[in-house]
Design brief:
CATH topology: Rossmann fold
Distance between the termini: 35 Å
CATH superfamily: NAD(P)-binding Rossmann-like Domain
Order of helices and strands: EHEHEHEHEHEHHHE
Number of strands: 7
Length: 251
Amino acid sequence: MRLKNKVSIITGAGRGIGEAIAIRYATEGSRVVVVDIEDSGSSVTEKILKNGGDSIFIKADLTVPQEIEKLAAKVLEKYGTVDILVNNAGVAVKKSILECTLEDWDFVLNLDLRGLWYLTREVAKTMIKNKSGKIINIASITGVVSFPDESIYASAKGGVVNMTRELGCELAKYNINVNAIGPGIIETPIYELQNFSLKVKENAEGMLKEIPINKIGQPDDIAGPAVFLASDDSNYVCGAILMVDGGWTAH
């Protein structure tokens, strides 16, 4: 119960990494605000409630500033405060630079970077008043190493990495810890959306060659570190990027 009675907002929590974090936070005693643009987020809230947890689902498009503002207001109306923010929502486009369009750029950056920044700004208002808070950004190893045909996604996640460092220092004086997790290859729906299926043997084998631990990660592998960064155990961690990638970036 390391997060007992804490109020947490988790974006992109309808599936994958976000869902795993939401469920783990609930088991640690947090009151969980599940945020997703898809209705699937409601099923995550139902799972938490069935297990005796406290959760609400808010459907929101985080590329729209007004919806971010409404989201922050709804959380305060329901719970009166917010202690933890996990910026997990994201999309990706896997194309060569010559195939990419400005629409592709806006599609990814407006959610992965601009939306993340604006929601952080809105939530930070409450955390600054409380002089307490934990903000965890879900970045990616793509923010620090290169992958073929990932120029837009790498730009977004590289921005998340450096925003984490900057805000970690900027908000530290308010007793707000801002850190990030850099997941490696995690078996989530985003890989299917990128037309890079880990179910294809050749794809999985190619990835495993780069992972010293020699296995593809699962969403629960990110949930544990996310609990650590949301708990008092991380009170002296500031602006850090915790790579959870099976050793990919270590070799």
